């Protein structure tokens, strides 16, 4: 009788286990959950000040104006207390573009409605030139004279993006953000900046300028750390990292860099497709996970491109979920 009861119990335990496996997916409660389809209404807060910066009329002029640096933040109308975050940096050649451009708004709706906190940032452009280290000024490389102002503008853009990320992490509790699941993305100049943000060291584009020269650095949460988990690159390059290496010395690529998603038009004449190939080769060299989508026949700004019937934001969704191990409903 005891033996029969023992086997009956084993059968019952086995049956319960099988039923649970078949009907209830295993969920890691420490990992955020996102949705495969648009599920939540989107709440937004606009023009949130994340730092201050100096704006010079001419290169490092004595006359400078302190200006607010702002971002827009979108979060889902739900009670989730464990949300991943997606920071987006607009393009425009470091001289144009907007955090409220149509692409930013479309991506904000796509990711926020699926469970992310989405952030779109404003950063200083060529017309509001920030303070620049003398070493950067002294090394224009082979930059043509008509592009020097654009070259100078690359530095403060990187500084501002880092300040925005530090603000976001410092205020994570306010928006129920899990700072272990950070994605940074951008298009064109924004992608250049996103790549730099994900790969450079914390002190880069921060400590090259003394506080005595730019006291607004004190407004940028300078001691706050952050850890980028994935980079989503839409037709960008590593030009800012290359310049940093040429000006200051160190090569910042290593095997600990975040996984990278690249989508780049093969006919791009603004940021050349060869730049994407070179970036991929750098990642392959260190055997870092990468998703690589050469968009055949597309030029610059290929936001409407599809691959096997999927739009780029869908492909990026799949990439982020896989690399970060997010729960999916």
Report the count of strand segments: 12
What share of the residues lie within helices?
A: 25-40%
Strand order of the largest sheet: 2-3-5-4-6-7-8-9
The secondary-structure element order is: HEEEEHEHHEHEHEHEEEHE
CATH architecture: 3-Layer(aba) Sandwich
How many separate domains?
Answer: 1
What attributes characterize this protein structure?
about 325 residues, alpha/beta, Rossmann fold, eight-stranded mixed beta sheet, two-stranded parallel ribbon, 8 helices, 12 strands, about 35% helix, about 25% strand, disordered N terminus
Write up this protein.
With 329 residues, this protein is an alpha/beta fold. It has a single domain, classed as Rossmann fold, CATH 3.40.50. 33% of the residues lie in helices and 23% in strands. It contains 8 helices and 12 strands. The strands form 3 sheets. Strands 2-3-5-4-6-7-8-9 form an 8-stranded mixed beta sheet, with helices on both faces. Strand 7, helix 6 (239-248) and strand 8 form a beta-alpha-beta unit. Helix 4 (148-170) crosses helix 5 (189-199).
């Amino acid at each position: 009788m005891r033996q029969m009861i023992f086997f009956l119990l084993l059968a019952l335990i086995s049956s319960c286990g099988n039923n649970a496996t078949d009907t209830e997916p295993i969920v890691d409660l420490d990992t955020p959950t996102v949705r495969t389809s648009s599920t939540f209404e989107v709440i937004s807060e606009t023009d949130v000040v994340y730092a201050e910066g100096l704006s010079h009329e001419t290169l490092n002029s004595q006359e400078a104006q302190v200006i607010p640096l702002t971002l827009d933040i979108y979060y889902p109308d739900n009670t989730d207390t464990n949300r991943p975050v997606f920071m987006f940096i607009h393009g425009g050649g470091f001289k144009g573009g907007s955090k409220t451009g149509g692409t930013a708004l479309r991506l904000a709706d796509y990711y926020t409605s699926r469970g992310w906190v989405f952030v779109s940032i404003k950063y200083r452009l060529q017309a509001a030139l920030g303070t620049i280290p003398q070493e950067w000024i002294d090394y224009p490389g082979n930059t043509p004279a008509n592009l020097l102002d654009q070259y100078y503008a690359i530095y403060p853009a990187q500084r501002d993006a880092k300040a925005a990320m530090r603000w976001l992490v410092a205020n994570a509790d306010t928006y129920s953000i899990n700072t272990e699941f950070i994605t940074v993305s951008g298009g064109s100049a924004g992608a250049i900046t996103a790549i730099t943000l994900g790969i450079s060291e914390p002190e880069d584009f921060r400590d090259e300028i003394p506080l005595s020269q730019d006291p607004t650095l004190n407004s940028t949460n300078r001691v706050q750390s952050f850890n980028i988990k994935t980079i989503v690159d839409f037709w960008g390059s590593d030009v800012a990292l290359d310049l940093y290496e040429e000006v200051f010395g160190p090569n910042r690529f290593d095997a600990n860099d975040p996984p990278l998603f690249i989508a780049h038009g093969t006919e791009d004449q603004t940021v050349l497709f060869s730049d994407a190939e070179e970036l991929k080769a750098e990642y392959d060299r260190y055997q870092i996970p990468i998703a690589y989508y050469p968009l055949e026949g597309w030029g610059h700004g290929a936001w409407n491109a599809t691959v096997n019937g999927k739009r780029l934001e869908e492909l990026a969704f799949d990439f982020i979920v896989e690399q970060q191990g997010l729960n999916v409903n």
